[in-house]
């Protein structure tokens, strides 16, 4: 008989003691031109992230020119007084850098990532883009044409179409938040280089802007670099714009965006609630995560695992616009898609989950898993300089203190099950939710009307 060979196994490595971690604190300062600066030294992060925030919110766009902030943001990388659009792109590539920009309700944000060894080059390029953008007619015309091409694709996307309809339903018709962030076909078509330059000259200046610089700054004289680049950007002084309050109507109702023949129904159920300045925010984050933040959440457990209606349903809170006086707001929403025949049953089960949450509350086990997922993995979430810079920039946009994120993690860890339950129930009251369904109205209207969750209206898909 052949003797069996034996193997020696190495002992399993043991986990070490957890090291204390906190979200990094920035140093705050101001350049001579009035630009606010946040810097954060992150040893080992050889790709430096730079975020520049401009006080050019969507509600400042001129009447009939919705989307001008978006086109301006895109045009920043399309040439300066020193480089054509092609030359500017080539200079970014030579520096190993990327430059992105976008516009949202709080303002316009430019995001630069560049190797630390080429930070001077990257800062020169973003400074030139801000100081003297070309806004050439041909480039603006191309950007407008590209944006017009994007709009039909967005309207054809069920989730984007649902978001558009929910904003239209929630906010007053004269509020900028009720209309698409990047404009409509009519308003974008009216944008030209003169409109872009007019918006730029009225709203883009260093005195109301903030720059965030994060990365390994070892051996870098950042003050000198900034003085020669962003510090050389000049502009008139001005006070920050007042932030108007957010108003919304969350009367329970249903809007069906008709897509005849659709095999799935896109769900978007939402309302407007408190933002990060409200003391309930940490508990709301925790409770919302337990409700629909991950694959083990209640909504997924019922609608996906038990019933097989969907590939996934998520609940989330997204800050729309913040103000230090507490007049800001966040979108609180539940999103997902279900197969068309089961739209009615899926909504029944979804509302049952919400009612059960109100009647029985969360469990300690659900709360503990949520804390571990939100707080325990935070060090991994912020391994890159870009992630840290983006969060610091969010804090600036939302008028939050520099230590907000670090404080939030401590608050999440200290939030109890009862608090999280109360916040989740308050965030998603069963009788104060606006439901948007993008699907086949002929198949889903009658079952939805039978649910009694509000008046049902059908609109065309466009």
Automatic annotation (TrEMBL):
Disordered: annotated span: 1-22
Organism this protein belongs to: Streptomyces cahuitamycinicus
InterPro entries with a match to the protein in the record: Metalloenz_LuxS/M16, MPP/UQCRC_Complex, Pept_M16_N, Peptidase_M16_C
Residue span(s) of domain Peptidase M16 N-terminal: 41-170
Pfam families listed in its UniProt record: Peptidase_M16 (PF00675), Peptidase_M16_C (PF05193)
GO molecular function, one term: metal ion binding
Domain of life: Bacteria
Annotated signal sequence range: none
UniProt-recorded name of the protein: Peptidase M16
Ranges for domain Peptidase M16 C-terminal: 191-374
SUPFAM superfamilies: LuxS/MPP-like metallohydrolase
């Amino acid at each position: 008989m052949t003797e069996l060979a034996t193997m020696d196994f190495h002992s399993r490595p043991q986990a070490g003691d957890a090291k204390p971690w906190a979200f990094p604190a920035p140093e705050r300062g101001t350049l001579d031109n009035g630009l606010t600066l946040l810097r954060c030294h992150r040893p080992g992060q050889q790709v430096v992230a730079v975020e520049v925030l401009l006080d050019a919110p969507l509600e400042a766009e001129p009447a009939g020119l919705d989307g001008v902030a978006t086109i301006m943001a895109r045009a920043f990388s399309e040439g300066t007084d020193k480089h054509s659009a092609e030359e500017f792109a080539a200079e970014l590539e030579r520096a190993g850098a990327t430059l992105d920009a976008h516009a949202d309700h709080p303002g316009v944000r430019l995001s630069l990532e560049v190797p630390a060894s080429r930070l001077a080059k990257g800062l020169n390029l973003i400074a030139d883009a801000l100081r003297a953008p070309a806004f050439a007619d041909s480039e603006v015309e191309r950007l407008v044409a590209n944006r017009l091409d994007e709009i039909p694709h967005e309207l054809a996307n069920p989730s984007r179409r649902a978001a558009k309809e929910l904003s239209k339903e929630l906010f007053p018709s004269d509020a900028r938040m009720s209309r698409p962030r990047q404009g409509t076909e009519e308003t974008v078509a009216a944008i030209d280089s003169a409109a872009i330059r007019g918006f730029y000259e009225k709203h883009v200046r260093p005195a109301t802007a903030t720059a965030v610089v994060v990365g390994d700054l070892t051996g870098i004289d950042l003050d000198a670099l900034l003085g020669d680049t962003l510090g050389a950007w000049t502009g008139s002084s001005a006070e920050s714009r007042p932030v108007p309050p957010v108003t919304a109507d969350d009367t329970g109702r249903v809007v069906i965006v008709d897509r005849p023949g659709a095999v799935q129904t896109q769900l978007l159920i939402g309302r407007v609630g408190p933002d990060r300045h409200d003391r309930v925010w940490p508990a709301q984050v925790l409770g919302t995560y337990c409700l629909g933040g991950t694959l083990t959440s209640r909504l997924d457990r019922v609608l996906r695992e038990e019933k097989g209606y969907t590939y996934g349903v998520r609940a989330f809170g997204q800050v729309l616009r913040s103000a230090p006086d507490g007049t800001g707001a966040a979108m609180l929403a539940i999103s997902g898609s279900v197969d068309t025949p089961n739209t009615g049953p899926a909504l029944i089960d979804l509302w049952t989950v919400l009612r059960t949450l109100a009647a029985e509350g969360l469990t300690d086990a659900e709360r503990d898993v949520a804390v571990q997922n939100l707080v325990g993995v935070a060090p991994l979430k912020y391994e890159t300089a870009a992630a840290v810079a983006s969060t610091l920039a969010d804090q600036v946009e939302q008028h939050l203190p520099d230590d907000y994120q670090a404080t939030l993690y401590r608050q999440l860890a200290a939030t109890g099950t009862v608090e999280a339950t109360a916040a989740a129930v308050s965030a998603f009251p069963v009788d104060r939710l606006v439901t948007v369904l993008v699907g086949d109205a002929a198949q889903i209207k009658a079952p939805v009307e039978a649910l009694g969750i509000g008046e049902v209206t059908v609109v065309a898909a466009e």
